Structures are given as C-alpha cells and as structure tokens.
Fold these 2 entries.
Entry 1:
Amino acid sequence: MLRQLLLRTLVWMACMGGVHLVHALTPEAALAMAQGDSAGRIAAMQTAVAEQPDARTAAFLRALAEGEVAVADGRALIVKDGQAQDPATGQDVTLPEGAEDVSNNNRMRSAIGAALAALDLFAPDAGQRLQAAQAMRQGATAERLPLIDKALAQESDARVKRALEQIRASVQLNSGDAMGRMAAIATLLEDASPATRLLLSERLAQERDEKVQAALRRALAQVDDQLAWGERLGVAFTGVSLGSILLLVALGLAITYGLMGVINMAHGELMMIGAYATYLVQGLFQKYLPGAFDAYLIAAVPAAFLASALVGAILERGVLRFLYGRPLETLLATWGISLILMQLVRTVFGAQNVAVENPSWMSGGWQALPNLTLPYNRLVIIAFAFAVLALVAWVIARTRMGLFVRGVTQNRPIASCMGVNTARVDTMAFALGSGIAGLAGCALSQVGNVGPDLGQSYIVDSFMVVVLGGVGQLAGTVYAALGLGVLNKFLEGWTGAVLAKIAVLVFIIAFIQKRPQGIFAMKGRSAE
C-alpha cells in the first residue's frame, strides 16, 4: 500500500512538472555542455533543454552563464565561493586540485541565454512562461519544435498556450509542406500583430506556391486592416490623454479668468509649484516611509493643491486685488510674477529637471490590441482629470461658495449689495483655480520630468482652451480641451507636430472670428 501511494505521488509530481522521472540532468550531459568546442557544447545544451527541462539543468546553465563552472577529473562542477557542487544531484563535493574554470565566448553566452529563456517555458509562474514564449518567438527554429510541443502538452494557461501555438505556426510557416504552411497562416491570423505581419511578408517574398501566395496576401490584408484600427485607436487615446491634461491645466484658468477677468500669465508656474510639491512628498516617503512608497501619490495630491492654492491666495491678496478692471496691468504683473517664481525654483531646486517616479501600480500598461498598449499612468490621469472636473462642478453648483462665485460672476455690484463679501469670494475663487493648477502639475509629474520651465509649455494652450470653450464655462472647457487634444494628435500624423500646432491655431482664430463668445456663450446679465 505504501509503495503504491509513493508511486502515485511521484507520477502526480511528474505530471505537474515538479519531478522528471525519466529525463534528468546527468553528469555526462553537464560535462558535454561545459567541455569541448562551441558547436558541440551548444548542441549538448539544445539536447538538454529539449529532453531535460528541469530545475537542475536551469541551475547549471545559470552557473555556466555566471562563470561558476569548473571541470576536473572528467566531470563538471558548480563552484561558488570555493565550494563545489555536483550539478546532477545538488550535493556538495570536494573540489579537486587542478580544476579548470570554464570560459564562454560571445557565441556561447548567446546560446546559454537562449537556453535559459527556453527553460522558462516550464516555470511555475504563468506570467514568466508567457514572457518566455513571447521572447522565443523572434528566434524560433525547427530545432525548438520538440521543446515547444512538450511545453504545449503540459500547458494549462490559455494565454501561454496561444503564444506557444503562435511560435509553432511561425516555425511551420517555413516548412516544406504547402498544407502545413496554409495551416500555419490560419493560426498566425489569430494574432494580428506587427510581428505576424513581418513573418507573413517575409514568407510571401520567398513563396513559390500560388495557392499559398494567395493565402498570404489575404492574410496580410486582414492583418493590415486590424493593425490600422489599432493605430487609429492609439491616436485617439493619445489625443484624449493630451486633452485630459489640457483640461486639468485650463480648468483653474477658466475659473479665475471667467470670474475676475484676470489674464493670469503665472498660471503655468502655479502648476509647476504643484509638480515640485509632488517631488517633495516623494522625497519624504523615500526617506521616512520607504515601505509605503506606492502610496506617496495619494498624499501628494492634497499637498500639491494646498501649495498652489496658498501661493495663489497670496498672489491675489498681495497684487491682483489692486489691478481688477485693468486686464493689461494684470497680464504684465502676472508675467513678472511668473519670472520670479521660476527663478525662485531654480535657486531652491536647481536649473536641472528632477525625476518623479511612478508608483508600481501606475507602471506598465494594458494590452488592448496587439499593437495598442494603454499606459496605466495615462489611464489614471484621464480618470483623475474627470474626477477633478466632477468635484469642481459639484463645488460650483452645490455649495455655498459656489453660489457666491456664480453670484459675483453674474453681477458683482448686486452681489455686494446683498451682503456677499466679494473680496473674500475673489480670494477663494483664485485659490481654487490655483489649487486646480497644482493638481495639473501633480498629474504632469507622472508623465515627464519636472523642471522650472514646466508651465511654459502649457500656458498658451490653456488660454486657447478657455477662449475656445467660452469664458467661465466648464462644459465649454471640457469640449475644447478634448477636441483640441484629439484634433492635434490626428493632424500630427498627417502634417507633423509644428504644422499641426499652426493648423490648430488657425482653426481657433477662424472659429473666434465667427463666434467670439466661444462654444458656449455666457448667459444672463453678465453677458451684456
């Protein structure tokens, strides 16, 4: 009974890939991989990977790659820190005198790397197996078919199995059997990726069979059509991403410009302050809370808002309240303040850009299509922009402060007569707009470096968004930001970045000539 139970356990472990009952690394195989000419050693490695894909083989290959293998008395040994180990059993042995270290040339290093990648097809982690399969696709040859078939036979993950089938089809695409090539074309069509297109194009240049040629042309047409959709969606996503950033930048400007008519040329620098506040919070987490680093961005959002809002309130109380009703003077004053803020940042942080790292949960991307990957940081910024928009709309429409802001915007004298402290409303509104600019800086820090000139890249675009959408109109700001972002990215694909900017500017000028009030006109007595 005990013998039967042990036998069943061993068979189960073998099926799960934990124990290889028949094929295991032998001393002879290890010696063949370590001794002889390069061609013989590479052939021995290929045989070991195909027939003995176990943990011992992987450990020996890693030791071989790191130069930790020596040959003595007709056997190969793993040597680490002066201690020898038998690669077949894993047991410690005495290192014989006169053991010779094994050296590898560039060809051997490349072959060892390929062998280790192939062994990852049998790793316990499905993600690691998928990564190994994707890496193997580029250099798959007919010699790897037994290994691929073995991996396919025991694979349970659907994504890995599909990747292995694609590798097998890419090998069969160059087989001598026309029917086999036709079957490979049908399998490859399931993955309409740029790599598939390259394989099909290369095969079409070599193909002599007319039926196979026709199938290749049809397959290429289908792949091109699917890739074209991926490219279009990629451009649209990039445009929405740019539009969400413009929305964040212009949202605060729409409040300050729409409420007080202040042409705030320091708005970009308020955004820069939010970005540097994010950088400082990151530094504090790195120094004092390294274990909670992934949560630093949650703390950086309110810090960026408060830092920019405080500077905005000081700016409004100290300078702008004396210049209301004089747009040219506010423009010149805020432009001078922007220069002061930039020089202050250069003095404190230096003229060089500083790097703000993404948390781990914002790294990487979602593979939506074979040729379309949506970065997580961009997706988070888009969601963040619309969350800020919803919060601002709620503040304006549902709170006492929003009621006062709307009242002062529509008729300042009557609001003052009704007891509203218009000076306090101006300060609160300007601080709110400045804080939103700080949130924009926090978001921008996740997609690029932070520097003293950060705000200069967006100030003109943000004013264009506000003017096009309609002064003081949140809905118009949303339409204008997203529209300009998508339009700019589509035009860049046809004309280039510079001509696209010019075309967008010409479009805005023409639109304002026909509709000076923007997309959404201001209603009520304030429009008179």
Entry 2:
Amino acid sequence: MRIGLLTDGGYPYATGESRLWCDRLVRGLAQHDFDVYALSRSAQQVEQGWIQLPPQVRRVRTAPLWAPEDDGHTYGRRDRRRFLGHFKELAAAVCADGDDHREAFAEGLYGLADLARERGGLYSALRSEVAVRVLESACRAPGARRTVHAATVPDYLMFADELERTLRPLSLDWYGDDGLGTVDLCHAASGGSAALPGLLAKRFFGVPLLVTEYGVHLRAHYLSADGAELSAPVRALLAAFQRRLAAEVYAQASVITPGNAHARRWQEKCGADRARLRTVHPGMEADRFAAVGEGADSGDPHTLVWIGRIEPAKDLIALLHAFAEVRKAEPQARLRLFGAPVHGAEAATYLAHCQALAAQLFPDEAADAHAVGDNPVSFEEIGGPEAPELADAYATGGVVVLSSVVEGFPISLVEAMFCGRATVSTDVGAVVEVIGGTGLVVPPRNPRALADACIALLRDPERRERLGAAARARALELFTVEQNLAAFRGIYLELISHSPVRREAVDEDGAPVPFGHPAEAHMQGRWTGRAAGPGTASGPESGTASRSAADGRTAPGAAHRKAPRWADGPRTGHVAPAAADIPTPAKEARA
C-alpha cells in the first residue's frame, strides 16, 4: 500500500510536534510505502534539515508556508470572473454568522482549487485589490458577524495575507499523475493546512482521507490567537475560516483518529460524525522507563517531582503555594522541579518569577548551626548532573505532580506511569482519561486540594506503591508504541478495503509483486446496498467511480450490479464503526 503522509511543520524536519509519532508510524509500518508531503513553517526549520528517513519513505516533497510563492501568473478576463465568483462564496461563508454555510464554503474552496490547478495565479489574485473589495463587501453585508463589521482596510489586507498562506497548498504541483493521485490513502498528521492536500486528492482522484489530531488544530488556533498581535476583526475572520475548514475536513475524512476523549469531544462539537471517530492514543516508548518502573527503588519517599516545560499554563505558582501547605504538615518534604531548557523571553520571565516566589516562601534552612542552609525547592534542568536522562528525574521522588490549568494529552503523566510512580494531577484535558483510577485528581487552581492529595500520598507508602503498580500496568496496556501501530495497521487495512487499489504493484525492476495488495482489493461485488453518495469513500464502487471519472471513464455495468445479500450493511456513506468504538471511557482507551 502507498500512503501519502501529509504534515504541517513537522515530519520529516528535525523540529516539529508531529515528528516523533510520524517517524514511529513510518518505521513501525515498514510493509507500506510512504510518500511524505510536508509544509514547512520557517526558514530556520528548513535550515535545520531532516531526520534520517527509513527506506520505506520513497519520496519527499516540501513547500514553504512562510516565504512568498508567486508563480508570476495573472488572470485574463474569464479567469478573473471565475476567481471572483468562487472567492465571493468563500468570503461570504467566512463572514456570515451561524454554522449553516458549509456547502457555500466548500463550493468556494474547491472552485479556487480547480482554478489554481488549471491556471495557477492564486497567489496574486488573493493579494489583489479585487480580493480586498470582496472581503469588504462580505464584512459589511447583512447577516455578517458583528465583530467583522468594524474591519478596516489594514484588516482586510492582513486577513488576505494570512488566507493566502493557509490556502497555498491549493496552488502546489502535488496533484499530477506523479503526485497524490498515485497514492492509495492520504493520512494527514493534523487538521488545517496539512489536510488541504488530502481534500484535493479526494476531490480530484477519489483517494480516501484519514485525519489524525493528537491536538485539535482548531483549538490550538484559538489558544494561539489570544496572544497574537492582531485586531479583533482579523482574529474573528481567521477563527471563522479555520472553523469552516475544520468542518469540511471532518465531513470529507473517511476516518478521524483523535488522540484522546478530550480531542474527540472538540471534534464532535465542530461537526465530526461520531461514527467516523476512532480514538487512538499516542504511542510512547516504554523501554526507556523500564529500569525505573521495574526496579526496586521507589525514590525518595519525602520528595515531590514535577517535570515539564516552564510556562504559565503549567501553573507552578499554585504548586509552590500548595507545597507551602505540604511543608507545614510534612517538614521533611522536598519539591524538585525539572524543566526543559528555557527559550524565549516569556518563559525566562516566568521562571524568574517562580524562583523569586520559592525564595520568598521557603528561606534556606539548615539542620543545625554548623550546616549549610538549603532550600526545599530546587529548579533543575533535564540533562543536568542530578538527572542526565529523563527517567532519572522521575526516579528521584516517590510522587509525581502535575499542576496544569491547560493540558491536552499529558505526556509527562504517562511517563510517570511507565516509571511506576503514584501521581497527583489537576483535572484538565485528558488527565482523567489517562490516569483512570491509578492516581489522585484534584480541581485546577486549587492549591489547598493539591496539597491535601500530596500529603495523603506522602503519609501512605503502601498506597503509593499500589497506585504506582496499577499506573504502570495501565500505561503498558494502553499507551505503548505497539498499541498505536496496531490501531493504525487495522485502520489502513479497513480503509483500503473500502477503496480498493487499482494500481499494479511492481518492484524496483518493474516486475509484478506477488501479494502486493490486501485480499480485500480483489473481492467481487459491492460493499453497500446502494451506491454511496457523492463525496464519500465508502466502497469499491465509490473509489472506482471517482477514479474512473478522473480518467474520463465509467465503470461498465456499475449502475446495474446487484449487491449480494452478505453485503447488506451500513448505508451511511462512511466506514461503519465497530462495537469497540462505542464512546465509553474504557473502550475509547483501547481503540
């Protein structure tokens, strides 16, 4: 099977959030070939280069979203009219109030994609005076959002610039006979711009689309927009566009794989069909923590450990105040904070503020008149002499604490579970889903509750040992790389069975490859009782019809075949959920 892996600012670059799990996926599914289509986010990312790629990566094609990409094309009168009509639909759908404009948004988006594929020139058109006038009319039209009414010319120009960058995948040369039209499945590593090539591959060639979101792209946009130096109308326009794009991606994806129930709820609220959702937890390497998790040393019983990035969302201020209460009840208690190297002025300022608060709350203490004073709170970097490896940091204490106020999938919590450590966490993001009943969970921004939970575990070594053992068993069952690969291996096979391969499998010398395709690719008959609707990828007929249409052919007898009785099944136009996909916490964790 040939997979088109679509990334945005991640794999195969040496930096990026999706780099690690994409690399594990590609290396773990070595029986498949991967074509990587990567969007880069900065010149620095490009300069740092790629990671070493395995041999199953047959092709890598890249495109920047940060540099101007003017192809030098301009439109004639007829093409200007085409652009104007499609862009009016897109702009009206973005500016309109309410959530019932998905069809108009899709018509405008795919119309621009068809124009870009045939004529190019989308870069100049989206930055033209005509585009600005269309945006102005859409913002001031009756029924437009109240926030965008106040937009001015600089706001239109700023939004047009951001829109052109987001829509740049529409103008790429990735959709020819040597591009995404030759893959059997598109797997987008996130929503947003990364999924755009997958939408076009499905429209042009009928290639099924799989979308994986370990952090919901729309949620990440909302969080990042709060700190951006943009006017309120521009933020409203960008948020509306991303919301429309997310709804279209969820509508066209054959399967969507959120990384946890928290992300799944976000996707459902944004219009994702529950039947197409399959929870697949991120796979993590358990072997690097095996020595700590299986060892006899349970760490210093009086030490609390925190590990993560130094940033306000981790709420170290509340943790320090909570530890002040812990010290009153347990004078021997210590708090060790292990952080990654600090980058950026904001993180450095926050770290300095936390260090000053720790010095104020906990003056240096000495055991007697002849000893050197010591602070019970220490700020350390991972990789330092006390913790040269990440596992060493978890091994220093008996209880691991997470105090965040915002959290997606808590990676540090899973690492602590692999190490067999009892944990105290705040109830944010996917914490409850991850921890289950193997740790203590308290409300966020509640230092008193956080302190009480820590004191309870520090005073009860048997409970710490029991919870740590249960946490390690749960992590090994649900959050390993092997579990992640097994889930995607099954999803790949299921999707290709509903959109069979029509490409001849050959080796490097051009000779046919025996058993190059799964058996489902050669099964006769139709998979559903009636033909799937337009825009679906639900069976052999839908995949064949769309690909034949792209080639200008019609499958003979397609309209007259009668489905065998065994093929009577779901007729919803998407992949039917298995019984294990009923969204209960236990079954979601094992998806």
